[in-house]
Amino acid sequence: MNKLSLKLGLLFFAFLIMIELILFYFLYTGLVNSRIEDELTELRARGNSHRNILQKHFDRPTIFHVALMETEADTDVVITTHDGTIKAESDRLTPQMEEILQQERDSIPNEGLVVENRWKTELDISTVSPIIIDYQTVGYVYMFKDTTSIQNMISSLKQHFFLVGTLAILVTIISIFFLTRVITLPLIQMTQVTKSLSKGDFSVTLNEIRSNDELGELSRSIHKLAEDLHYIKEQRNEFLASISHELRTPLTYIKGYADLAEREGVTEEERNKYLTIIHEEATHISRLVKDLFELAKIDQHSFTIQLEEVNLNIFLNNLVKKMKPAFANKGIQLNLYYEEEIFVLIDTDRFEQVFVNLLDNSLKYSKSKEVVDIKVNLNDQHVFISVIDFGEGIPNTDLPYIFDRLYRVDKSRARKSGGTGLGLAIVKEIVEAHGGVVTASSTLGKGTKITIQLERS
Ligand SMILES: Nc1ncnc2c1ncn2[C@@H]1O[C@H](COP(=O)(O)OP(=O)(O)OP(=O)(O)O)[C@@H](O)[C@H]1O
Ligand SMILES: [Mg+2]
């Protein structure tokens, strides 16, 4: 039994028991009262029927006959005259009976009257019916009934109630037990799952996922969380592995060529060659570290984007002007196309980096005599800025991964061109920090198109 179901169970129990007690109380008192009522009505009716006979023949033999009839029944009768003189009785009088007989009787209704109903404390309950002849009350018929039979009946009723009550409590406890289990079990399962999640065990399964209520929703969220965490953890491990791999290669080169350069008998020319390689590799490492640092900053959200409203055409024009020489060097033409003036909310420094990275790729992966286009398109809500080249393109199998960190289509080729595989990852982070989306489409051997989608300001 866990804490939650115990709490819930006790709460349910207290609540249900209270309701059951109240119901039982009303049922019991209602039953008892109506039983007593029945007894009294019956007794009075019996008295009335005796009285009816006596009204017709108020003489000795009839009186005697009536009294005789009652000696065999479990009720008793006492017949008196108007002034209280006892004419006949079916049994010996008890002190309580005498007390009742001595009470003053005035204007008793024809249908009779209950004179004693205290069944709990008295020995008898009692009614009286008047004998009226020619509009004159000439006597009374007193009826008595022993209360022990009533008390027996009530006590057996009590026993029944006790039995049913105990059963009800038992059923309540059992159903509460199962109910709270049904409610709390998934919660407990989820607690265990989240516990093992925090310990790093992602192989969790929750079987409540099918239900459509809030609990199902919660377990779906937890499941998703577990998957995400798992993914993040795997990504991190992969990332660390690739970083150390990335660093190991240039470091091996550096160490190897440094060893070679140190050797005796190396010509000046050879040594210079080695030093150049060492320098190149060191540059590569420092670029890698710089880019990684950049990404880490973006990840921690410690970099704030300084949004400003910029005329996109002017911004891109300046950029193209800056980049043109590099493209011209390789004999590639860089064009800019746009439909109309448009303003966007961007961080210009960051966005310059975005386009430098994209154009750098296009330049790197295009042959000379080709063109690279920047095109701006609009719809009602969005601005689409595309960088299009007609270079070597990206294989379909690699396309989904090019925005991943350290991902390069062709590792050896990229090494030659000095790529680290972080350029597009940085692009993606920056664009998403602006609330934008970046997508890529490419055909191997035909070219690549990278599109940035931003909200119109
Ligand atoms: N325009 C393109 N044409 C062909 N392949 C591309 C293009 N842009 C990206 N790629 C492929 O996607 C990979 C990832 O690109 P990304 O810019 O992230 O890394 P990189 O260019 O290799 O290195 P870095 O940009 O850090 O110098 C590249 O290695 C390349 O294989
Ligand atoms: Mg790049």
Automatic annotation (TrEMBL):
Enzyme class, broadest EC rank: transferase
Catalytic activity: ATP + protein L-histidine = ADP + protein N-phospho-L-histidine
Keywords: ATP-binding, Cell membrane, Kinase, Membrane, Nucleotide-binding, Phosphoprotein, Transferase, Transmembrane, Transmembrane helix, Two-component regulatory system
HAMP domain mapped to chain residues: 181-234
Membrane topology field: Multi-pass membrane protein
Gene Ontology MF terms: ATP binding; phosphorelay sensor kinase activity
Pfam families in the record: HAMP, HATPase_c, HisKA
UniProt GO cellular component terms: plasma membrane
Residue stretches making up the Histidine kinase domain: 242-457
Native source organism of the sequence: Litchfieldia salsa
Intracellular or extracellular location(s): Cell membrane
Domain of life of the source: Bacteria
Name by which UniProt lists this protein: histidine kinase
InterPro entries reported for this sequence: HAMP_dom, HATPase_C_sf, HATPase_dom, His_kinase_dom, HisK_dim/P_dom, HisK_dim/P_sf, HssS/ArlS-like, Sig_transdc_His_kin-like_C
Enzyme Commission (EC) number: 2.7.13.3
Transmembrane segments annotated in the record for this chain: 6-28, 161-188
